[in-house]
Design a protein that fits this description.
The chain is mostly beta strands and 110 residues long. It contains no helices and seven strands.
């Protein structure tokens, strides 16, 4: 299920006191691939996942420990965990660090 409440989608940015920041993906909307960029202010376990509008997990993009830094090389190509293309529509990218999460809206066009 989707981490957090869909009504708490971060549209303006993270709280300055948070230990991480998830930027809006670019391009958005996208057809072939979109880049997901984020910053960690301290080393931590990180989970980044894509969810459908129904809250179903579509794909896990990253799940592991990461050091402090800016990460710019994570991408999503509009496929599910089994590499099948998903339908056009609205998706959510959720980044979870510890017990906090940030979510961004992603629009995929075929």
């Amino acid at each position: 299920t989707l981490v957090g409440d869909v009504s708490n989608i971060d549209s303006s940015g993270a709280n300055a006191s948070d230990s991480f920041y998830l930027y809006q993906n670019y391009p958005n909307p996208f057809k072939s691939e979109t880049r997901i960029r984020y910053i960690l202010k301290e080393a931590a376990p990180v989970k980044i996942e894509i969810f459908s509008i129904r809250g179903e997990k579509i794909k896990s993009l990253f799940n592991g420990e990461q050091d402090t830094g800016t990460y710019e090389d994570l991408t999503w190509d509009g496929t599910g965990q089994e590499r099948n293309k998903v339908s056009s529509g609205l998706y959510f990218c959720t980044m979870q660090v510890g017990n906090k999460s940030h979510t961004k809206k992603i629009i995929f066009l075929k």
